[in-house]
Amino acid sequence: MHPEGNLEEFQDPVNYDLEEIPGSDERIAMIRDAVSRQGHSTLELACGTGIVTLPLAAAGQHTTGVDLSRPMLEHARVKAASMGLGGRTAWHHADAREVRLPGRFASAVLTGNAFQAFLADADQRALLATVHAHLEVGGLFVFETRNPAGHPLHDISEWEPWFEYTSAQGHRVSVGGTQRWDAAARALHWTTERRWTDARSGQRHQRSTRIACRFTPPDELGALLAAAGFTIERQFGAWDGSPLSASSPEIVTFCRR
User: Fold this and answer.
1) pTM listed for this prediction
2) Distance CA 230, CA 141 (A)
3) Mean pLDDT throughout 93-104?
C-alpha cells in the first residue's frame, strides 16, 4: 500500500479536526517557536486541514501546504479564508514524493506522524529528497514518527476503545479498532471503527477506515537522514520536549539541510 492508497482516514475533514485538534497545542507551540527563529517561509508536507499550517501563518509565517487528500486540502483553504489568512497561505494538491515547487523555504514541517505513511524505502528516500530540494542551505526540517519500542507492535484482533468525541453532527462517537502487524514490512495496519447511536431514531451506526503505518527505529532514521543530506540537531521523545529514550512514544526530530 502506497500513500495514495492510504487515504481512507482523510475523507471527513470537519470531524477529523474535532478528533485531532485537541491535544495539538504542544506540537504547534514547539514548531511555531522553532520556525519563527529560522525565517518567514515554511513548507508543510501532508498538511491535512492546516492544523499546524494555519497557526504558523497566523504567527506571521508565509506558509505553503501540500497534501494528497483533496477533501482535507479544500477544508484547509476554507479555514484559511475564514481566518483572513489567504494572503499568507498557498495550497497544492500533490504527492510529497514528487512535488517540486518554485523557490526555497526557510523551514519544512511534516507532522501527524505522516512520515509513517511512506511505507517503502524508496518512498522515504523520495520524501526526504523533496524536503531537501525545497529547503534553503541550513534550512530546518521538523517532523515526528512513532518510536517502534514505545508501541505494541503485534496483532490485536478484538476491538479496543481509544477515545470519544462529539461529531459535527452532534453524535457521541466512540473511536476504537484493531491492528495487524506485518513484521517483514515493519508496518502496522490499523482498522479504525467509529460507533455512534442516533439520538432521535436510536439506530446504531458504524464506519470503518484502514491505514498502514511504517515504524522506523531511531538508528535507521538517523542513517536515512544522513544519506539524504540532513544533520540531526536535536531529538525529543514527545512534543512536550521530554528527552528521547528507548521507550519514548515518539521520535521528534529537528534537523538541517
Assistant:
1) 0.95
2) 9
3) 97
